[in-house]
């Protein structure tokens, strides 16, 4: 299965009724976007098929990716992530506004562990297990990846579990900002970063300079 076929399969997936229903319910539920038509489908990854860096989030945001149809697009997280990618030469634009805004990525592919937006931004354990084969297949298809960067502790934990199931040596890999772990022969390294969420940005738990540190480390590794 190629990446395009995989993404077509993701788009048609309907295995998690709770999440599918939640995605549909979001349209019209937020005043700021009340006149917009939402994407509402499962959200495939986006980026360079020859990427050396795979970025994982936990799941699409209800009014971000679930609205715009592209990962980390149309919300604060995307604003800070893509501007950091732009500063480091990975993105053609610093703003990620909507699905067909012309933005392209070089050497980076972005996806979520779970492909449908969940209530309270938390998929349950069964939804993670149902959806994780898609991430495994993405990892298999993205053959040039040398670094996996997980954004946030939840995404780090779930990405680590998927890598463990694939046979990686994840023992001792604990989440932190700007950490990088060697997972053994045949696997990319696993890196972590605080999530550039609105809360983390407003509380300065993560800043643009801290995101720069992460991407500088990754570029040094590459
Ligand atoms: S979360 Fe994943 S497995 Fe569940 S419906 Fe969405 S795409 Fe399918």
UniProtKB/TrEMBL annotation:
<keyword id="KW-0227">DNA damage</keyword>
<keyword id="KW-0411">Iron-sulfur</keyword>
<dbReference type="InterPro" id="IPR051536">
    <property type="entry name" value="UDG_Type-4/5"/>
</dbReference>
<dbReference type="InterPro" id="IPR044147">
    <property type="entry name" value="UdgB-like"/>
</dbReference>
<dbReference type="InterPro" id="IPR036895">
    <property type="entry name" value="Uracil-DNA_glycosylase-like_sf"/>
</dbReference>
<dbReference type="GO" id="GO:0006284">
    <property type="term" value="P:base-excision repair"/>
</dbReference>
<keyword id="KW-0408">Iron</keyword>
<dbReference type="GO" id="GO:0046872">
    <property type="term" value="F:metal ion binding"/>
</dbReference>
<keyword id="KW-0378">Hydrolase</keyword>
<feature type="domain" description="Uracil-DNA glycosylase-like">
    <location>
        <begin position="44"/>
        <end position="215"/>
    </location>
</feature>
<dbReference type="InterPro" id="IPR005122">
    <property type="entry name" value="Uracil-DNA_glycosylase-like"/>
</dbReference>
<dbReference type="GO" id="GO:0004844">
    <property type="term" value="F:uracil DNA N-glycosylase activity"/>
</dbReference>
<dbReference type="GO" id="GO:0033958">
    <property type="term" value="F:DNA-deoxyinosine glycosylase activity"/>
</dbReference>
<comment type="similarity">
    <text>Belongs to the uracil-DNA glycosylase (UDG) superfamily. Type 5 (UDGb) family.</text>
</comment>
<dbReference type="Pfam" id="PF03167">
    <property type="entry name" value="UDG"/>
</dbReference>
<keyword id="KW-0479">Metal-binding</keyword>
<dbReference type="GO" id="GO:0051539">
    <property type="term" value="F:4 iron, 4 sulfur cluster binding"/>
</dbReference>
<keyword id="KW-0234">DNA repair</keyword>
<protein>
    <recommendedName>
        <fullName>Type-5 uracil-DNA glycosylase</fullName>
    </recommendedName>
</protein>
<keyword id="KW-0004">4Fe-4S</keyword>
């Amino acid at each position: 299965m190629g990446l395009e076929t995989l993404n077509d399969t993701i788009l048609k997936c309907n295995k998690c009724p709770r999440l599918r229903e939640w995605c549909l319910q979001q349209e019209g539920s937020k005043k700021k976007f009340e006149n917009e038509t939402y994407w509402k489908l499962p959200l495939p990854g986006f980026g360079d098929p020859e990427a050396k860096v795979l970025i994982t989030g936990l799941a699409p945001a209800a009014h971000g990716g679930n609205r715009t149809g592209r990962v980390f697009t149309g919300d604060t997280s995307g604003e800070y992530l893509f501007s950091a990618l732009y500063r480091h030469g990975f993105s053609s634009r610093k703003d990620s506004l909507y699905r067909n805004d012309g933005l392209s990525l070089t050497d980076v592919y972005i996806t979520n562990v779970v492909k449908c937006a969940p209530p309270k931004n938390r998929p349950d354990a069964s939804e993670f297990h149902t959806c994780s084969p898609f991430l495994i297949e993405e990892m298999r298809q993205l053959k040039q990846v040398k670094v996996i960067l997980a954004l946030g502790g939840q995404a780090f934990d779930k990405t680590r579990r998927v890598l463990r199931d694939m046979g990686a040596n994840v023992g001792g890999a604990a989440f932190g900002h700007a950490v990088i772990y060697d997972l053994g022969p045949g696997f990319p390294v696993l890196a972590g970063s605080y999530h550039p969420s609105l809360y983390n940005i407003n509380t300065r738990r993560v800043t643009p300079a801290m995101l720069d540190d992460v991407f500088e480390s990754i570029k040094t590794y590459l």
